[in-house]
Amino acid sequence: MVKKKSSKSSKKPAQLPPTPPAMMSGDRRASEKMMQDLHRILNQQEFGSVEEVNQFMQQLMSSTGGYVPETSPRSLLEQAQDVMYRAWEAPNRAQRVKLARQALDISPDCADAYVLLAEENAKTPAEARAFYEQGMKAGEHALGKEDFEEMVGHFWGVLETRPYMRARLGLAQALWALGEHRQAADHMRDMLRLNPGDNQGVRYLLATLLLHMGDDNALEKLLGQYPDDWSANWKYTAALLAFRKAGKSEQANALLQEAIQYNHFVPSFLLGRKKPPKQMPAFISPGQESEAIDYVLDAVIPWQQTLGARDWLKQILAESQS
Questions:
Q1: Biggest distance spanned by C-alpha atoms of the chain
Q2: Which of 32, 84, 138, 230 shows the smallest number of beta carbons within 10 Å?
């Protein structure tokens, strides 16, 4: 991040550098707090090059033993966001909800407070939808129309955009739960426009939703946007799409064989030979059972609803094991 002197340089949020290993935390949101502190420290400096940024970072981490010093919030919204960092680490639901409401008392633009209320206080998908909608609007207002447009393509890399993106993803999932599939898909597609790098894994949810909707043309287009994706989700989804379009074609068979070779845990869950656990794994490991569980929980229904798909899977699986 190189600060350039201009009339707008003090207002536009800066894109953060990658988080150094010493800053990482077991809690994703706790590490975000450290990134916020680093963001404030860097914004107080003037740099002429990327090399100067890296040198400053090295000196800072060396002087503190690998930790980022805590900083004071500069605005009401930052005060509210700091409360949210505490809320995510609170030991029980009552305390988390109380802190979220405190954050909104400080700043109604605190989108993450609405996200927490949707997750912890909503009793129905409709209530969750209302909270997420409020969070999305709060996030838009906090970013401002001009900066919002300037950051298109770089969302998530700019720390200030993350509460908005969390609220919008929650809204899309609530709409899906309510059966508003087209609206949910539209939100997900636009999130990929804002952040093509897709740090949140929106494309995986969208791919599965498009399978549910039977929108094979849109799914084919989405798969083409990420041709280098090697996940189980992408491989099995591409195979199922090929089967839906042309049955047991040479292409479909090859794609499914490749998917099975990459993650052989998926078929057992898709075929009902093994039941997924009631709780999601804490970590998702590529090629492992945890990745299979993550994929199957949403994708099992399209596999069941595609006529002949599971018999085809049994056949290809048997061939791969012989």
A1: 69
A2: 230
Query: What are the tokens at 292?
Result: 């299979």
Count structural domains, the chain: 3
What is the domain extent for residue 59?
13-72
DSSP secondary structure of 15-78? BPPPPPGGG--SSHHHHHHHHHHHHHHHHTS--SSHHHHHHHHHHHHHHHTS-PPP---SSHHH
Q: What is the pLDDT of residues 123-152, one digit of tens each?
A: 999 999 999 999 999 999 999 999 999 999
Concatenated DSSP letters of 222-264 = HHHH-TT--SHHHHHHHHHHHHHHHSS-HHHHHHHHHHHHH-T
Residue type, 214: G
Instruction: Return the C-alpha torsion angle 218, 220, 222, 225, nearest 10.
Output: -140
User: Could you tell me the two tokens for 271?
Assistant: 């075929």
Closest CA to 202 of 227, 157, 166: 166
**The domain boundary residue, chosen from 195, 220, 243:** 195
- What is the DSSP code (8-state) at residue 122? -
Tokens 């996030």, located at residue: 139
